[in-house]
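Hello K.,

You asked for the raw outputs rather than the summary table, so here they are, unedited. I folded two proteins back to back in the same session to keep the settings identical. This is the first:
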Amino acid sequence: MFKRRCPYCHEKIQREAKVCRFCGREIEPLPSFGGTPWIWLLFGFVGAFLGAGAMIGYQVLKERRIWSGQEKLSLPSKTSRELEEQLMDF
């Protein structure tokens, strides 16, 4: 079970304690998180992995289509010589 320290005598007490068993003073209860933050972290990691997997899968399939000839590789419309001549004109 989780422990916490009494704010008055600094002894270890139960997390849910309302009164310190050592000094007898009343203690304010700790705010409870309800146990849901870990679920949101889990959903975030799962979503990130699924998104990354989908992007990687899309790129792999795209590369396979290019290599198999089903999809044409987009090349620049001008050749390198034409681009060099155009730069030399400036």
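The second followed immediately with the same parameters:
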Amino acid sequence: MKRKRCLALVVCIAVLSIGCTKKKEVTYEGKPLSEWMEMLKGQDPIGKYAAIHAIREIGPEAKEAIPILIERIREVRNRDKRILVACNDALLAMGKEIVPHMISLLKDDTWEMRRGAAWILGKVGPEAKDAVPALTEALNDSNPAVRTNAQEALKKVKGGNPESVNTNSGESASKEE
């Protein structure tokens, strides 16, 4: 009886300790991701570059930084190409983690954000296959740059087969024989 109680107590302690353990935050150069994200939100341009670099190096484990990277892109758009390029590189380092965010951006109010989202999805390539419907819809965008990037992205996402994209109607082509 005592052994059963003791065993039950040990099991309870083990279960509680597992539930209480906190997942260790990913770090880069001794700083946790949360600190890099705060630097990215800040005003110091050198700090922003350092944060973007750190997030890029961390890669997919830094996926919680995706919305902040997108906001930095939205802020700078065409005013600071260096930040724009660095943020794009950091997003691309996330791999397929960015696909849902880019799909949402294909419906953004600003054509620059839609164009950028299509471009990034093309760079992700076949891992962005979930974006095919949204990219196909973007072939009908009011902005020619968005349409062009969507067309190129579809080619890359679909494996480089240019015949799989019908540029006239904005829909996937199918061979009829």
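The mean pLDDT is 84.

Happy to rerun anything if the numbers look odd on your end.

Regards,
P.
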